[in-house]
């Protein structure tokens, strides 16, 4: 249950202030790029945050959240169901999805930003056909080529997108990537530019199912300015809203983090 408002007023204020700062940064980057800030949505990455923390973010103005792990997603989903039902909150999965966890993921998220293979897309389509519900999906592309990152290779992304776009019950809405792990802004920006080029080629192809493939989910706390300059329509921020994440136990697996 949600903690009574009065018991976390200070924390909400902190989250609200941080979220305001993120929106101000997005607006500034959009202006610098000659773009309308209204074109860009902020996805709040809620990895390691509990349901109460998510509610605090929603009260502060968040409308779109992303979860990295299906296990966390399914734990929080029942506690956030009222917000989703009211249309106040949209939940996406932004982390790697294994086929054996599809049922759990689809029971808790309305969008999957991390489709990286035709096999996964077909499995999602089959599951959605059984339930009769459409699903928004993005293709995750590994634009940096780093082995530590998930995603289809950039050279193969266009073909994968065209094939996914034809699958029933899947609605291809765009592409997602994680910027290169480097301090070189030119390298990071080049990766974002490549994703935009892939998106533009797919959208301009006129192929079946590609008319809605406009989204570019790219840019996190460290590099969202560069992503916005290259056309990002969704930026993913977590620590910029909640502060530093707790240190995981030493036994916890280390995985790539698209937020």
Written account of the structure:
This protein has 259 residues and is of the alpha/beta class. The protein has one domain (9-236): Alpha-Beta Barrel (TIM Barrel). The protein is built from 9 helices and 9 strands. The chain has helices at 9-32, 51-59, 70-85, 102-106, 118-131, 154-164, 185-204, 224-229, 239-242, and strands at 41-45, 64-67, 90-93, 111-115, 135-142, 152-153, 170-176, 215-217, 234-237. Strands 1, 2, 3, 4, 5, 6, 7, 8 and 9 form a 9-stranded parallel beta sheet that branches. Helix 3 links the parallel strand 2 (64-67) and strand 3. The longest helix is centred in the first third of the chain and has 24 residues, at 9-32. It is globular. Residues 1-12 and 250-256 have low confidence and may be disordered.
Query: Whole-number radius of gyration?
Result: 18 Å
Main sheet attributes: strand count, strand direction, barrel closure: 9 strands, parallel
| SSE order | HEHEHEHEHEEHEHEHEH
Quote the beta fraction: 15-25%
* Total strands: 9
**Alpha-carbon distance between the two ends:** 26 Å
- Output mean pLDDT: 91
The coarse overall form would be globular
Keywords: Pyridoxal phosphate
Region (Disordered): 240-259
Function: Pyridoxal 5'-phosphate (PLP)-binding protein, which is involved in PLP homeostasis.
Cofactor: pyridoxal 5'-phosphate
Give a nutshell description of this structure:
With 259 residues, the protein is an alpha/beta fold.
């Amino acid at each position: 249950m949600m903690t009574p408002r009065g018991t976390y007023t200070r924390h909400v204020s902190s989250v609200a202030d941080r979220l305001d700062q993120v929106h101000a940064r997005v607006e500034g980057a959009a202006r610098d790029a000659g773009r309308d800030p209204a074109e860009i949505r902020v996805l709040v990455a809620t990895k390691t945050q509990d349901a109460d923390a998510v509610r605090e973010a929603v009260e502060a103005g968040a409308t779109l959240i992303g979860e990295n792990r299906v296990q966390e997603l399914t734990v929080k989903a029942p506690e956030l169901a009222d917000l989703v039902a009211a249309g106040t909150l949209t939940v996406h999965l932004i982390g790697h999805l294994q086929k054996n966890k599809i049922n759990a993921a689809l029971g808790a998220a309305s969008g999957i930003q991390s489709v990286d293979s035709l096999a996964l897309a077909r499995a999602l389509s089959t599951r959605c056909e059984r339930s009769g519900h459409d699903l928004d999906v993005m293709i995750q592309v590994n634009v940096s080529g780093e082995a530590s990152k998930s995603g289809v290779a950039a050279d193969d992304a266009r073909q994968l997108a065209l094939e996914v776009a034809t699958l029933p019950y899947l609605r291809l809405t765009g592409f997602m990537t994680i910027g290169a792990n480097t301090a070189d802004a030119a390298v990071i920006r080049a990766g974002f530019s490549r994703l935009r080029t892939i998106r533009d080629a797919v959208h301009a192809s006129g192929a079946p199912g590609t008319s809605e493939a406009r989204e570019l989910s790219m840019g996190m706390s460290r590099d969202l300015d560069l992503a916005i300059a290259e056309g990002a329509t969704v930026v993913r921020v977590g620590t910029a809203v909640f502060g530093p994440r707790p240190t995981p136990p030493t036994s916890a697996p280390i995985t790539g983090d698209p937020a």
